Structures are given as structure tokens and as C-alpha cells.
């Protein structure tokens, strides 16, 4: 089990020892492309493997102009990526299962990216229906344990009940804790030793050891304590 954390500033990479880094791209809400390049360069200089995680650049965009711009962004990120990209599951514009031209566009964009680098799909937009999405799309899975709890799903039970076909495809795990609402979100809080998300990871680590676990917490000053929890679990499974 490998452990790492996300960064959104070039000075954050390497602040604590880790096996890998996630560079998060939030479009207008965070680092721009030039800053992403700087973070990627810093990771390479430090000898740190990294994934890039575009958050607000949907693969299923079908509107002319927007589709081309999104594809250009994603391809640029894919060419910069080291270990690959982590992308989100997606829904129809009004919500619900992806279908029709939107599903076709998602699959087409995904295939284009896979021709450049590895891509893993995370549960984010419709976590209660994520099993359908993962089975439909196939490929590598990023299991976001924090999003299960935020969606009202018991993450411990979810991890215990994962079918072997899904478990075999889990490559990355996102870790953060559900707590009180802030900024429209109830998750991405630092971990505690006995929170449900940590208990779920402990169960997952028993079932599968070759995973890379990435912290996605907002309080960077709490990064060390949360990372220690991950390393304790990693040490317990070898």
C-alpha cells in the first residue's frame, strides 16, 4: 500500500515524505495550466510519482466550443501526467445516469485520453449509482471513501461488499472525512483515528494490498497527522 496527498500549489509538493502526489486542477477555482506545469516539474525534480486530477473539466461535454476546449485541456493534462489521470464519473446535464450522446462523448473522450496515459475513474457525481457507472465504463477505479460517507453510504459496509470484479480494478483510493458543512461540502476534512473512513480503509487494506491511497484534505496544516494514520495502516498490512 502506497500513501500520498494532493497538492494545489507548487510549494506543497514534497513538504512531507510520500510515495506519490496528486496534482489537482480546479480550472478557475485553483491552479492554472502554467501552475500545473510548475507542480509537475517540481514533482519530477523531487523524484515523486504523480497523478493529475481534473475536477471541473467534464469528459461528457457535448456543446460545440465547450467540448473542444475541454478536450484540449484534458489532452494537455494527459501529456503532462506521470502516473496518469484521475477523472470523475459524470451524470446527464439535469442529473441521472449518463446516456445517449453524453455517454458516447464520455467514452470517446476517455478513449482519447487512454491513448496518451493511464486513466482511473472516481466516484464523485453520482456515488449511490457508481457500481453501474464503473461496470459500464470499465477500466481502472479510484475509490473515494469520503464520498461514500458524504452520500449517506456506510463506507465500511460498502468496502466489505465490493464484488471481486470491482475490487480487482481498484488502483487508487481517495481519503478524507465527513464532518460539518463548509463551503457547500461536508467532506474533505482531516482524518481521525477512529472515523468511519479510516475503518473502511482498514477493511479495504485487508482485502487488497496493492493500492495507492491519496489524502484529499483541505487543512494542509493537519496533513502530517492524517498521513501518519495512512502510514500506520500501510505498515499493518505490509
Q: Which structural class do the helices and strands define? A: alpha/beta
Mean pLDDT: 96
* Low-confidence parts: none
Q: Level of helix content?
A: 25-40%
| Total helical segments | 9
Approximate shape: globular
Percentage beta strand: 15-25%
* DSSP, total strands: 8
Characterize the largest beta sheet: strand count, sense, and whether it forms a barrel: 8 strands, parallel, barrel
Supply Rg. Answer: 17 Å
Q: How is the largest sheet built, in terms of strand order?
A: 1-2-3-4-5-6-7-8
How far apart are the termini? 7 Å
SSE order: EEHEHEHEHEHHHEHEH
Can you lay out the helices and strands and say which pair or pack?
Elements: E1 2-7, E2 20-25, H1 33-46, E3 49-54, H2 66-80, E4 84-88, H3 100-114, E5 119-122, H4 130-137, E6 140-144, H5 145-150, H6 155-160, H7 164-167, E7 170-175, H8 196-207, E8 212-215, H9 223-237
Parallel strand pairs: 1-2, 1-8, 2-3, 3-4, 4-5, 5-6, 6-7, 7-8
Helix pairs in contact: 8-9
Amino acid at each position: 500500500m502506497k500513501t500520498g496527498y494532493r497538492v494545489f500549489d507548487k510549494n506543497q509538493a514534497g513538504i512531507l515524505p510520500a510515495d506519490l502526489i496528486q496534482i489537482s486542477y480546479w480550472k478557475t477555482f485553483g491552479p492554472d495550466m502554467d501552475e500545473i506545469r510548475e507542480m509537475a516539474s517540481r514533482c519530477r525534480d523531487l523524484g515523486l510519482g504523480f497523478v493529475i486530477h481534473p475536477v471541473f473539466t467534464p469528459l461528457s461535454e457535448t456543446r460545440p466550443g465547450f467540448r473542444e476546449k475541454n478536450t484540449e485541456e484534458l489532452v494537455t493534462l494527459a501529456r503532462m501526467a506521470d502516473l496518469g489521470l484521475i477523472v470523475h464519473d459524470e451524470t446527464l446535464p439535469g442529473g441521472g445516469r449518463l446516456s445517449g450522446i453524453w455517454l458516447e462523448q464520455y467514452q470517446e473522450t476517455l478513449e482519447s485520453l487512454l491513448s496518451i496515459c493511464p486513466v482511473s475513474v472516481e466516484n464523485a457525481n453520482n456515488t449511490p449509482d457508481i457500481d453501474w457507472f464503473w461496470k459500464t465504463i470499465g477500466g481502472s477505479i479510484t475509490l473515494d471513501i469520503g464520498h461514500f460517507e458524504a452520500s449517506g453510504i456506510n463506507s465500511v459496509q460498502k468496502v466489505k461488499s465490493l464484488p471481486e470484479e470491482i475490487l480487482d480494478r481498484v488502483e487508487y483510493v481517495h481519503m478524507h472525512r465527513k464532518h460539518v458543512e463548509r463551503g457547500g461540502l461536508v467532506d474533505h476534512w482531516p482524518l481521525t483515528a477512529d472515523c468511519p473512513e479510516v475503518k473502511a480503509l482498514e477493511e479495504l487494506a485487508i482485502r487488497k494490498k496493492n493500492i495507492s491511497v491519496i489524502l484529499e484534505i483541505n487543512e494542509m496544516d493537519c496533513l502530517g497527522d492524517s498521513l501518519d494514520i495512512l502510514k500506520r495502516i500501510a505498515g499493518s498490512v505490509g
